[in-house]
Design goal:
Layout lengths: L3 H7 L1 H7 L12 E7 L8 E2 L5 E4 L11 E5 L5 E6 L9 E2 L5 E6 L9 E6 L5 E5 L16 E2 L5 E4 L3 E5 L5 E6 L2 E5 L5 E5 L6 E2 L5 E5 L2 E2 L4 E2 L2 E5 L5 E4 L10 E2 L5 E5 L11 E5 L5 E6 L9 E2 L5 E4 L10 E5 L5 E6 L1 H4 L3 H5 L9 E2 L5 E4 L4 E5 L5 E6 L9 E2 L4 E5 L9 E7 L32 E2 L7 E3 L11 E7 L3 E9 L4 E10 L2 E7 L12 E11 L2 E11 L2
Parallel strand pairs: 37-44
Antiparallel strand pairs: 1-36, 2-3, 3-4, 4-5, 6-7, 7-8, 8-9, 10-11, 11-12, 12-13, 14-15, 16-17, 17-20, 18-19, 20-21, 22-23, 23-24, 24-25, 26-27, 27-28, 28-29, 30-31, 31-32, 32-33, 34-35, 35-36, 38-39, 39-42, 40-41, 40-43, 43-44
């Protein structure tokens, strides 16, 4: 079978001619502007707090003189470009101050596997580089996009290690993965390692990444999902074939992880797993085809993800999956392009992660460049021909503008970042509505927010939260508190992942000692699981917000 990526470079002009043969659903009225760049890219755009779009160019282990990072204004004009002469191997991630973080390969180095983590400020000035992390990018090549923690720590995968890098560019710690000695066709020995996904961060600070099973004739490195404490110690890992798609995290802490590997035989092992925060299996759904992109989550909890056919002569499907692990529907984009010669040679795959908007529409594209807006009930709202798409996942901002980077040329000698008008109000209100969770590409389940004026206490005697009794408890416990005077109070129960479970008090209360009863149920009246919970009391005084917390242990 011919290499489908090579075909993707040869057929864009034919695809554009085929554009007119599509159904009346297809539309070109959504395109707002196109910004042309000198070199192809597989990265996904990041959007700063002022609306600036950041994207790097380059996709291979060879470097071109024009490779670098662009900053593009919301009107489609260039703000600045930093030419590096080296290929950018990841999407840009942004911290709360709009500092940029991304991986740069050094194709001019004799060791082509050399790479570094770069940081720029929002004006394009180099802040620092963290050298010699190594590079062994999985498919998609966006797999090593850094994750940014709330305290500014940058987590990034290298060739053999997961690194934690402080905001000033110094190493905090690293975790070394197994190394495998392989012998190539010429008898040369080369040390390799697992293919691994980009890291993501849960609300409790746990770092998750997916590892794909690796092996040589003598050594096998197990795959699976790894969970790390913020100090770098391994928390747990699953034991399975693993994969290289980054995990996705739901509101209740559930981790969705795709397993499977490239190859015909491995197709039968391809699944989407849902795991509890402690690493135990919640459910497993066979997908038959390899998942190379991260799932996204709709406002109702539905998971959306595309698959790729790799060596199998079948198309990749786009799936809608319930939070319980059942297939709601699947869509075959091959039906829209089946008369096209390139599609007959290689049915189009779906590599990019979808984005879900505030209206519930789901946006994704296939390999041949047909970009879809689809309703939650599987109806195609419109299709836009963008030439060719591989691993570029969209970004969607609050005014409804969607930014999408193409993989193949849309004009002579150029590649493009396209701005499309969606008519929405930005991203869906969901725990993970797009690639890397947010438009800053942080891969962090807890969005950056401006710090609230919160202090541990409002002064001696102002208010008090007492230990609950009994503790541990089953099925109910009493929580007492005291106020010095009348004030507005919130008393809530949270799980260990930071999700609110039950609201106990919300309103003005008079001064004095008071108590409430929690019967171990959530706001819907359902019994909650055994475990540690947090009681948080917040009160307002003098225009400030103060809080106290206490741990509760429920034993069912």
């Amino acid at each position: 079978m011919k290499n489908k990526h090579f075909l993707a470079y040869l057929v864009p002009s034919i695809i554009l001619l085929f554009h007119s043969m599509l159904s009346a659903q297809q539309s070109s009225g959504h395109r707002h502007w196109v910004f042309f760049m000198e070199q192809t890219q597989v990265q996904s755009p990041a959007v700063g707090s002022d609306g600036t779009i950041y994207i790097g160019t380059g996709m291979s282990d060879t470097s071109r003189q024009s490779d670098g990072v662009y900053a593009i204004n919301p009107d489609g004009t260039q703000k600045w470009k930093l030419t590096l002469g080296k290929s950018v191997h990841s999407s840009v991630a942004l911290d709360k101050d709009d500092n940029l973080y991304f991986i740069v390969g050094n194709g001019n180095n004799p060791d082509r596997m050399d790479a570094a983590l770069y940081s720029l400020d929002s004006s394009g000035q180099l802040r620092w580089t963290f050298e010699h992390i190594g590079w062994m990018a999985p498919i998609p090549n966006t797999g090593f996009t850094p994750a940014i923690a709330a305290d500014g720590t940058i987590y990034v995968n290298g060739r053999f290690s997961l690194f934690a890098v402080a905001p000033n560019g110094t190493m905090k710690w690293k975790y070394d993965f197994p190394r495998i000695d392989n012998v190539d066709a010429l008898g040369r020995r080369e040390t390799t390692g697992n293919q691994r996904s980009a890291p993501v961060i849960g609300k409790d600070g746990t770092i998750y990444l997916n590892t794909e099973e690796g092996w040589s004739e003598q050594i096998k490195a197990e795959g699976g999902l790894c969970a790390f404490y913020p100090d770098g110690n391994l928390k747990w890992r699953s034991r399975d074939v693993g994969g290289c798609a980054a995990p996705t995290i739901d509101n209740d802490g559930t981790i969705y992880s795709a397993i499977g590997t490239y190859g015909m035989a491995a197709a039968q092992e391809s699944k989407l797993l849902a795991l509890h925060p402690d690493g135990t299996l919640k459910w497993s759904l066979p997908t038959e085809l390899w998942i190379q992109s991260s799932p996204s989550i709709g406002a109702d909890g539905t998971l959306y993800v595309g698959t790729s056919h790799h060596h199998l002569n079948v198309p990749g499907w786009f799936y809608a999956i319930t939070p319980e692990g059942q297939i709601k529907w699947k869509y075959d984009t091959y039906d829209d392009v089946k008369d096209h010669p390139a599609a007959q040679e290689n049915p189009p795959d779906i590599y990019n992660s979808p984005v879900i908007d505030s209206n519930g529409l789901i946006y994704f594209g296939n390999e041949l460049g047909f970009f879809y807006a689809m309703t939650p009930d599987r109806k195609v709202a419109w299709i836009e021909n963008v030439s060719s798409l591989l691993y570029c996942s969209p970004a969607l901002v609050d005014d409804g503008t969607l930014y999408l980077a193409t993989h193949a040329e849309i004009a002579k000698d150029h590649f493009g970042l396209i701005a499309l008008n969606t008519g929405s109000h930005g991203l869906a209100n969901s725990p993970w509505p797009k690639f890397r969770q947010n438009n800053a590409n942080t891969g962090n389940a807890q969005p950056f927010e401006q710090p609230e004026s919160v202090e541990d206490a409002a002064g001696p005697g102002t208010f008090e939260l007492y230990p609950n009794y009994p503790n541990p408890f089953n099925p109910a416990t009493t929580i007492a508190f005291r106020l010095a005077s009348s004030c507005f109070v919130n008393l809530d129960i949270f799980d260990i992942a930071g999700q609110r479970v039950r609201e106990l008090v919300n309103g003005r209360r008079e001064g004095g000692r008071q108590q409430v009863r929690w019967n171990g149920t959530d706001d819907r009246g359902a019994k909650v699981h055994s475990g540690v919970y947090i009681c948080r009391m917040r009160m307002e005084s003098g225009g400030k917000v103060f809080q106290k917390t206490w741990k509760l242990c429920l034993v069912n």
